[in-house]
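Reminder: ligand-aware prediction takes two inputs, not one.
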Amino acid sequence: MNDENIDVLIIGAGPSGSVAAAFLQQKGYKIKVVEKNEFPRFVIGESLLPRCMDHFDEVGLLDCLKARNYELKKGARFIRNDEVCNFDFSKKHTDGWNWTWQVPRADFDKTLTDELIRRGITIDFKKEVVAVKIEENYSITTIKDEHNCLTTIRAKYIIDSSGYGRVLPRLLDLEKPSELPKYGSIFTHVNDSNRPNGVEGTTITFDVISKEAWLWVIPFSDGITSVGYVGPTDFLDSFKGNSSEKLKEMLKLSKYFFPRFEHEDFIFEPREIKNYSKSVKQLYGKGYVLTGNSAEFLDPVFSSGVTFATESALLAAKLITKDLQGKQVNWEEEYAGYMKQGVAVFSTYVKEWYSGNLQKLFFHQPENPEIKSQICAVLAGYVWDKTNPFVTKHKRLIKNIAYLIDMEKEKSE
Ligand code: FAD
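Here is what comes back for the chain with flavin-adenine dinucleotide:
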């Protein structure tokens, strides 16, 4: 086996790997992306947050995405029976992007990789990383192709952007159970032949079925709509039959959307992911860094996955550049510390969503425009803005305001 010598090996060509590759190529490094699948391939994670537009913009990947005319996402709607809470990204506390997209990921990820290839980046599709050996100043990665042939690559750095492949967490024993409760999801695409005209038909909506279970409806610009259910794993397991039968039954629980989807056939047999929250013991080590889902995944309720994937990938690529230029990098502070801050904010929002506290704030009437704009900035992915009290005091503020709402309700009863 011959070692190929490069600066940075990137595992996985999802949004995380693509953003890292684009940045490092701009800086002139010798890089390679190894991707297990052939693209286009299906992956879940179709609703983006405005914050990730900054990342695509910075590495020059925005124009190729704009050309695809994806459905615009200018906010998000949450409904609970007759109650509605609309977030409008143009009314958010933090400056930044006011819109993003709802994207079929197969097309989205292929658009990114096509652009990388056009720029001369090597992506080895249908090749899988199967082993990694970390040495003093480099690592040796073993790659298996579709004919089971093995080759090796010697790299100064590895960026693990392998998503649920979780290559380095598995190979280097970095897995850690998530602190979040065990939830699962079941999802598919439909032709949406009853899609209403105008904003009603294209708005992304989260229908709150119970405190812990909800349905997503994500319309795409090609007329197809993504529908998915999320809930505690035992709730999802309580539905009988195959995944189509289960999802059909679950859709009946949505008063709002059942009439729209009642007669729709599923474009593919619904897929199920159980216990999707993931965590790791450490986000970096000698000669490697974990980005995107390979590092951490919380919950789909606030659509933060792709944004964390691109945020972490861009930061990791910048710090590797600094290191390769011989400058000092404090990985604990500059990478792990920074990423953990953002994860901690979203983690509170996820926990307080399922505790019911955040839902109290969302559906409370009359709305408080200041509080709403601060929460909206978090939902847009701007979770590092220290001027936002819903970022800096995330642990206390949601709980306290939910308590006040309860008190107010008790008094009025
Ligand atoms: P991925 O996009 O998963 O890409 C990883 C790539 O690595 C894959 O192409 C894979 O083939 C490749 N790979 C794996 N193993 C190997 C190997 N051994 N060798 C080489 N290549 C390998 N996020 C959102 O932003 N919005 C949402 O609405 C949303 N909804 C979600 C709903 C559910 C139910 C779940 C579970 C997640 C959701 N997410 C959402 C999260 C989203 O799916 C991920 O956060 C996002 O795809 C992470 O991107 P990535 O680049 O890290 O990984």
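The first strand starts at residue 3 and ends at 11. Residues 11-17, 34-37, 43-48, 128-129, 161-165, 167, 185, 273, 276, 292-294, 297, 300, 303, 305-307, 309 surround flavin-adenine dinucleotide (CB under 6 Å). We will return to this case in the review session.
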